[in-house]
Amino acid sequence: NITATDQQLVNASIVQGRYDMICPPVSAYELHKSLPKSRLFFTTAGHASREKKTKKKLIEEINWMAKNGSN
After folding, report:
1. Distances in Å between the alpha carbon of 41 and those of 2, 19, 61?
2. Of the candidates 58, 46, 48, 52, which has an alpha carbon nearest to the alpha carbon of residue 19?
3. Residue 57 burial class via C-beta count within 10 angstroms: exposed 0-12, middle 13-18, buried 19 and up
4. Nearest 5°: phi and psi at 61?
């Protein structure tokens, strides 16, 4: 379980496909609201992380985190 204190410390990038029918985009938004240090991005894709636009954004975010650190 994640405590309220833990939520203040979590750095996360959330990449969500706008047309995801399995995990609705509102779920990503709700998660983002509960994690104050998170970054939220929507792609014009569905559920699969291998979809071109989602994969591109995931790679960008991994590179951003590597450059900027997790804090």
Report:
1. 23, 13, 10
2. 46
3. buried
4. -70, -40
Single out the residue of 55, 53, 43, 54 nearest to residue 18, CA to CA.
43
What is the model's pTM? 0.83
pLDDT tens digits for range 30-70: 999 988 889 999 999 999 999 999 999 999 999 998 998 76
Burial label, 17 (beta-carbon count in 10 A; 0-12, 13-18, 19+): buried
Element (H, E) at 65: helix 52-68
